[in-house]
Write a structure and sequence with these properties.
The complex is a heterodimer of chains A (about 900) and B (about 600). By secondary structure, chain A is an alpha+beta fold. Chain A is built from 21 helices and 44 strands. Chain B is an alpha+beta fold and about 600 residues long. Chain B is rod-shaped, with a radius of gyration of 39 Å. The chains are: A alpha+beta (about 900), B alpha+beta (about 600). Chains A and B meet through strand 18 and strand 19 of A and helix 1, strand 26 and strand 27 of B.
């Protein structure tokens, strides 16, 4: 039978989709980290991060593909220890790792070193258990270890002690640490690394002296003479030194990159230094990381200007014409992020640059995953988040629901597999998992019912295309999450009057009145032109694989920035570079974008439609319309006030239903008495006479089916989606059982005892019937049984027993029924805690407690409000008359219509 | 002039172990080549240094050229004979004659060239092509004015000579053969404008100018020392201490080679170097003139039994003092390295400075800085401030009932501290003032004047001096770090049992006891008020900052110690119980050139 419903290619399956720019919520929390960030790539494109958190514990965060938040976290050190320093050594070739950390406990220091762990075989969820630690015998435990540096052969650490000179120690793995002194009276070492100069092994040290720092290399004392070699590095006219990085040359000797007021490179003490960034530019660089890939060198640095720290990017990959020209020339440091205090970079195949950043107070997130897509050279950032059921993050997203339909045959799509990939490398949520997809990387997911949901967090109105493939599809289906948005933008931004009058939901004008008319006209015409280009692009052959981005200088400009398009674009987007002019031009193989930055002209070509939108966004920023404004203006926002209002109405409605039922019980009881009186004589006749079915046959469940088939795929209505997992997985149902008030249970027990007494005469049969009846009543409450059916069932069962039911028993039963009905109210309102929803509800309503009733009503209210709003333009139940009528209908739902 | 410093003002003792280590490093990096090649003449008239390739060619060519010459000459003769023979014929073949004549001409030219070469080569009939190990210096236990530079031969070293017109060589074998050179470092002096060496030729002493430039930081680098050690003007071949092969004949040749080579080197002005080359080294960029910049430099050595403690001493003079004379000039009673605090491989030298010179040059600056800081803290109550010739600071202060107030902060010397990282500069705080009170009576007032001071002890008051201590610590790049601590507060007391009364009748007033406490209060106020100004010094981050005085630079940013582009300093301490009773300020130093 199953095979008949399985879709296949010949069925001509249709793929329909609906994409919205909207808010979406995720139960995640960001990391509250402290310092010392290190990262490595442990498998495929997945990263492992290490840092010391605010409670001085050493933590590791592992990126796990296809998990809920994408990350999982462990503590590597125990709670009572204060970790003062740590380091990791990752051997790329064998993909193994060694970790060391120093801790202080009651003024006594300890140093722990782990065994080597092979990462390719470990289960990330069991990483902590695999680590085995060795305690290293350090010579003086009262000194505090403040820095650790590990390399292939050994471990180096520096120590400090109040009012005493700092020292450093080194040991080859397996040996005992040797202590060494420094050539000056310094109290603190800032940074240290093992290195090699002129074939001598030794240590690079940057240490503090009063009001300045000294950078040295001191070799280990040689075996023959017992003497050490000392080299000092101090670029002339540079007063501030703040960090360094060493890179090993092919011959094993170290090249030193020194940062402070400027960045300098020393290949050896005798050679002249190379100035990568001059001093006196107002930025002081501290932490730097250098990565070299053949002739291409990239430097990332934290720079502080005007007391604000940020992340800067420098490379010798200088673009001067269409091709990368490496003339040994360095780009001017380009600011890419603000408010960042630490970072760690790792290489990946899909990323041309990948970093993890620690944000400071100016930044909303603590730990950020920041990477550049190799394909488009665009930069993306995502906060590193852990699944947290106690917290909620709201993100701006494109949410797409893709539905599969077959007109010709009856197919069941549930459980079928589809593969999702995308035009650029992205991190998206599919189902309830966060996954990475790209042009060469697809993710396989199963269809639920007949649709799949993809949530694509974004900070831009430009979106990359998604592709869907399946065995039953003849080709690759292209999904454009912004298709609807693009149409809206054309109408709203392509007409000057519409734009001028545009208002945000808060009532404020979108365009401030300081913007001149001519600017506005320019913007509108630019928008329309852009759309012409898009049409052109769509018509011409458009291969999204290769984006020939070329950065060119025009005739009279001297290009001294030299970065890739994505780099500059990112910096522009962050506000670090200001563009003064924009021009677009259609050329044979795409579109040419021309901008003026600080008097210099840059141009590049692109074929991607998303680039046109990126461009438009920059243009709109000139009239102060930023992404957040666009989002507010264009996106579907959850207006929680309206939703809560609807929810309260629903709550009252249900309450009224129960009250109505409760009220009506009296009448039903009377009716039943009368009935039994009559039945005593005319048993058979009653079957036909009474038609309980004329009672308004409603069950609670129908209330829930407000969603039509169509609105099921509208992401705004189906926003809950997979979040229902939270309910299913929670132990709420158990809690509900516990919520039945005690006195009701007591009463029920009491009554049932009495009834049982009565029925003892009748034996087991009666007891079974009664139990069965209770079950059926619960089914009624759960909406699985119609009330008319229930009453008929009850009566007939009792009748069929042939029992001459005493009035008393009926009384008792009805007493119980009334109690139970009333207790339903209590059950529904007992406080429970369901992950995600509890937090969401408390957050948006401001109330303290959350009950099943709240959950049910909220779940009903969201789609009702959304759909009603879309249809009617305003939230439901706002009109008093409408609300009262609705509420009253609940009261009379169960009224006997006899 | 300090006996502990060999009658010099400052001495930097650099461990010879470090010098030898550096030489071995220079050798490994091929800055010092592993070959030693030269040509000389047994008559002592010529010497030439060249590369080993050139030398090998030279010696090979000796035989080759000789043989070729002989052959060519023979050929020439043969051609002549041929020509003669042809000419003798009746009808000679013109063409053939022409051919032969051409051949002859060519040969003649070749012969000429060869002759020149051979003549040239006969200039040198002795030469060395040697493989050497890293040169080493050795300190002479009994002679502080000389050291020995050793050049040790390795295998495959050859001595070449012409024997009976042919090239011959002797394999030196590298069996522990050492060439030793006596380096008369004690004869070198560097002044403000030139570098000279004292030469004793034929009993007449005169100086030879080695360089027309005065003292630079470069003179303190080990590479520069190496150049001095191999400078034939300073070094001389020490036959006695050399270890040469035992065969008499070759010994004589070797001796001749060395002696002749040397005498010719000395004559040459631009390449007087034993190993044949000057080292191309990076010039150390000097920083701004430091406070204790030497005006004269000389050298000496110290031998020590302790490991790594034998030193090569840079002897320095300040303030244009003249070079000391006398037998013990430059001879230190003990090697300074024996006083090193950090005995690990980090430290390879000790620097000593005459305490008196330090006081004369530095304390004055310090007193002025303190004066300025205290003056600005005192504000309007300070009437005047000055520093005297003994570096004492004097303030006059006063306010409405305090007259003729003065504070004397007297420099009291430098003292050792408990920590080998600091020395303490002591200032005694003394004070005196006259307090005036007008006490109201029924009719008029009683005027009372009382002198108070830190010496005052009357009326059970306990006046005593205060103590202001400035701790001095070695900073980076030759700077000194300062930290002020107002360690003991000064206290004032009554100078006399009774005060002075303004009027004669006032003497009979008996309310003095009642107002004693008022006086005490005034004394207390002065103490706390000025005490606060003094203790404020401890809170200033950069104590060495002088305020708005243009001619006094920021004292903590000033480079004090010499040659900080080549040496680092740490662990300052006072040696006051050295062999000679002449206190010295000592610093541990480490040799490390700055790359700018």
């Amino acid at each position: 039978m199953e095979n008949n419903f399985k879709p296949n290619i010949s069925d001509k399956i249709k793929v329909e989709y609906h994409g919205e720019l909207m808010q979406n919520m995720f139960s995640e929390s960001t990391i509250d980290s402290s310092n010392g960030l290190q990262s490595i790539q442990y498998k495929d494109e997945l990263a492992m991060l290490f840092f010391i958190d605010k409670k001085h514990t050493l933590r590791v965060i592992i990126q796990i593909d296809k998990s809920e938040s994408g990350w999982s976290s462990y503590n590597l050190s125990t709670d009572n220890l204060e970790v003062s320093a740590f380091d990791i050594h990752h051997d790329d070739k064998s993909n193994s790792i060694k970790i060391a950390y120093a801790s202080v406990n009651n003024d006594s220091s300890a140093l722990l070193l782990s065994d080597e762990v092979k990462l390719s075989t470990i289960d990330p969820f069991k990483f902590k258990d695999v680590l085995k630690w060795d305690s290293i015998n350090i010579n003086n435990v009262s000194r505090k270890i403040d820095h650790i540096s590990m390399n292939q052969s050994g471990l180096l650490y520096s120590t400090s002690y109040l009012n005493d000179d700092a020292t450093y120690s080194y040991f080859v793995y397996g040996n005992k640490p040797q202590d060494y002194t420094l050539p000056e009276n310094t109290t603190k070492v800032k940074q240290l690394e093992v290195g090699c100069i002129y074939d001598d092994f030794g240590v690079f040290l940057l240490y503090d002296m009063k009001a300045e720092r000294t950078m040295i290399f001191q070799s280990f004392p040689d075996s023959e003479f017992g003497e050490a070699n000392l080299y000092r590095f101090r670029p002339s006219n540079v007063n501030v030194l703040d960090g360094f990085y060493t890179v090993n040359n092919a011959d094993g000797n170290s090249h030193l990159y020194l940062s402070g007021d400027g960045i300098y490179k020393y290949t050896s003490p005798d050679d002249d230094k190379i100035t990568i960034c001059e001093s006196g530019k107002g930025v002081v660089f501290s932490k730097i990381e250098v990565s070299i890939n053949e002739s291409e060198t990239t430097i990332w640095a934290i720079g502080k200007a005007n007391n604000k720290s940020g992340l800067y990017y420098i490379t010798n990959n200088f673009y001067e014409s269409a091709d990368k020209v490496n003339k040994g020339k360095w780009t001017v440091p380009l600011q890419m992020q603000a408010a960042v205090s630490e970072f760690s970079s790792i290489k990946g195949n899909a990323f041309s640059n990948q970093l993890f950043l620690l944000g400071t107070e100016g930044n909303t997130n603590s730990l950020i995953h920041f990477w550049q897509d190799k394909v488009t050279t665009h930069w993306q950032e995502h906060p590193v988040v852990l699944q947290s059921l106690q917290e909620l993050k709201t993100l701006e997203t494109f949410t797409v629901n893709i539905q599969f339909k077959s007109d010709s045959s009856m197919c069941s799509f549930h459980g079928e597999k589809v593969r999702v990939s995308s035009e650029a490398n992205l991190l998206v949520y599919i189902g309830s998992e966060k996954v990475a997809i790209g042009p060469n990387k697809s993710y396989e997911t199963s269809i639920q019912d007949d649709y799949i949901t993809i949530v694509y967090p974004t900070k831009s109105i430009a979106s990359s295309l998604l592709y869907v493939e399946a065995d039953f599809l003849s080709g690759k289906e292209t999904i454009d999450p912004a298709h609807k948005l693009k149409k809206e933008i054309k109408t709203k931004f392509g007409d000057k009057q519409v734009l001028k009058n545009a208002k945000l939901p808060s009532g404020k004008h979108l365009i401030s009145n300081t913007v001149s008319d001519s600017d506005l006209s320019a913007i509108v015409s630019a928008t329309n032109k852009a759309y012409d280009h898009i049409d052109d692009l769509k018509n011409s052959s458009n291969s999204a694989e290769e984006n020939k981005v070329q950065l060119q200088a025009s005739n009279d400009a001297f290009l001294d920035i030299g970065n890739t398009f994505g780099d500059i674009w990112h910096s522009v987007k962050k506000g670090f570079i200001k563009i003064t002019e924009f021009i677009t031009e259609k050329i044979s193989h795409g579109i040419k974008f021309i901008v003026k930055i600080g008097g210099k002209i840059f141009e590049w070509t692109s074929k991607l439609v998303s680039d046109v939108f990126h461009f438009l966004e920059r243009i709109w920023e000139k009239i102060k319309v930023f992404f957040k404004d666009l989002f507010e203006y264009l996106a579907f926002l959850f207006n929680w006030n309206d939703i809560i209002h609807t929810k309260r109405v629903m709550e009252q409605y249900i309450s009224n239903i129960i009250l109505g039922l409760s009220d009506e019980m009296v009448n039903i009881k009377k009716k039943t008495y009368n009935y039994f009186d009559e039945v005593k004589d005319k048993l058979k006749k009653t079957r036909e006479e009474i038609d309980f079915k004329s009672l308004n046959n409603q069950n609670l469940d129908q209330l829930r089916n407000v969603n039509t088939k169509d609105s099921k795929i509208d992401p705004r209505a189906n926003w809950i989606g997979k979040k229902t997992n939270h309910i299913v997985k929670s132990d709420a149902q158990g809690k509900v059982a516990n919520a039945i008030p005690d006195n009701v249970m007591a009463k029920a027990t009491d009554i049932s005892t009495k009834i049982i007494e009565h029925f003892k005469v009748l034996g087991n049969q009666a007891a079974t019937v009664f139990t069965d009846l209770t079950e059926k009543f619960l089914a009624l409450i759960h909406g699985n049984m119609k009330i008319g059916d229930f009453l008929e069932y009850m009566v007939l069962n009792l009748l069929e027993l042939g029992v001459a039911v005493a009035q008393e028993i009926i009384d008792l039963i009805f007493e119980l029924l009334i109690e139970l009905i009333q207790s339903v109210d209590k059950i529904l309102n007992a406080p429970i805690n369901i992950p995600f929803f509890s937090y969401l509800y408390k957050n948006v309503s401001g109330e303290d407690t959350f009950s099943i009733n709240d959950l049910i009503c909220l779940l009903m209210a969201i789609p009702i409000t959304a759909m009603y709003k879309i249809g009617e333009g305003e939230a439901p139940f706002k009109q008093k008359i409408e609300k009262t009528e609705f509420l009253n209908s609940g009261r009379t739902m169960f009224k006997l219509t006899i | 002039m300090n006996r502990n410093l060999g009658n010099y003002d400052m001495v930097l003792g650099l461990s010879t172990n470090k010098i030898n280590y550096q030489f071995s490093k220079m050798y490994k990096r091929k800055i010092i080549h592993n070959e030693w090649v030269f040509l000389t003449n047994s008559m002592g008239k010529e010497a030439k240094t060249l590369t080993s390739k050139e030398a090998k060619e030279f010696w090979e060519n000796v035989n080759i050229n000789k043989a070729a010459y002989a052959t060519k000459k023979d050929k020439l003769e043969a051609i002549d004979k041929q020509i003669m023979a042809e000419l003798d014929k009746e009808d000679w073949d013109d063409k053939k004659i022409k051919e032969l004549k051409n051949k002859k001409r060519k040969l003649k030219d070749e012969v000429k060239v060869l002759k020149e070469k051979i003549d040239e080569a006969s200039k040198y009939d002795l030469g060395l092509i040697a493989n050497i190990a890293a040169p080493k210096i050795e300190i002479n236990k009994d002679n502080a004015k000389e050291l020995t530079l050793q050049i040790i031969f390795k295998s495959n070293s050859k001595l070449f000579y012409t024997h009976e017109g042919k090239m011959a060589f002797y394999d030196l074998g590298g069996n522990g053969i050492i060439y030793a050179f006596k380096v008369a470092i004690g004869k070198v002096k560097i002044t403000a404008d030139k570098k000279i060496v004292e030469i004793d030729s034929k009993g007449i002493e005169h100086t030879k100018t080695l360089r027309d430039k005065g003292i630079t930081d470069n003179d303190f680098t080990i590479q520069s020392l190496f150049l001095d050690f191999e400078n034939a003007n300073i070094a001389s071949y020490d036959a006695k201490n050399s270890k040469l092969p035992s065969e008499a004949n070759n010994n004589a040749l070797l001796q001749a080679a060395m002696v002749n080579y040397f005498s010719n080197l000395v004559k040459s002005n631009n390449n007087p170097y034993v190993l044949g080359y000057g080292i191309h080294k990076n010039e150390v960029k000097p920083e701004e003139r430091n406070l204790f910049y030497p005006t004269g430099v000389a050298y000496s050595t110290n031998y020590s039994e302790q490991k790594r403690a034998s030193t090569f001493n840079f002897l320095m003079l300040l303030n244009n003092h003249s070079f000391p004379t006398g037998g013990d000039a430059g001879i230190l009673p003990t090697s300074l390295m024996e006083y090193a605090v950090d005995k690990s491989g980090t430290i390879n030298g000790v620097f000593g400075m005459n305490k008196t010179d330090f006081e004369k040059n530095y304390i004055n600056l310090l007193s002025n800085v303190l004066k300025n800081k205290i003056k600005s803290s005192m504000g309007s109550k300070c009437k005047s401030a000055s520093v005297n010739g003994r570096d004492d600071i004097h303030f006059n202060f006063g306010w409405h009932n305090v007259k003729e107030g003065s504070i004397d902060i007297e420099y009291d010397g430098i003292r050792k501290s408990n920590d080998n990282k600091y020395v303490d500069i002591i200032y005694k705080v003394k004070s005196k003032a006259r307090v005036h009170q007008e006490i109201k009576q029924l009719f008029g007032t009683v005027g009372v004047d009382w002198s108070i001071s830190t010496k005052g002890r009357y009326r059970k008051s306990n006046g005593h001096d205060g103590l202001l201590i400035v701790s001095l610590k070695a900073g980076t790049s030759g700077k000194l770090e300062l930290k002020v601590n107002y360690e003991t507060e000064f206290k004032l007391g009554f100078d006399t049992e009774e005060p002075n009364y303004k009027g004669a009748l006032d003497k009979f007033w008996d309310g003095l006891n009642k107002i004693l406490s008022d006086f005490a209060k005034v004394m207390f106020n002065i103490q706390t008020d000025i005490g606060k100004d003094l203790s404020n010094l401890s809170n200033i981050d950069n104590i060495g900052d002088s305020l708005n005085i243009s001619n006094l630079q920021n004292l903590e940013n000033k480079i004090i110690l010499p040659v900080s582009s080549v040496y680092t300093y740490k662990n300052v301490r006072l040696l006051d119980n050295g062999p000679a009773n002449d206190p010295v300020l000592l610093f541990d130093t480490s040799y490390g050139v700055v790359s700018q």
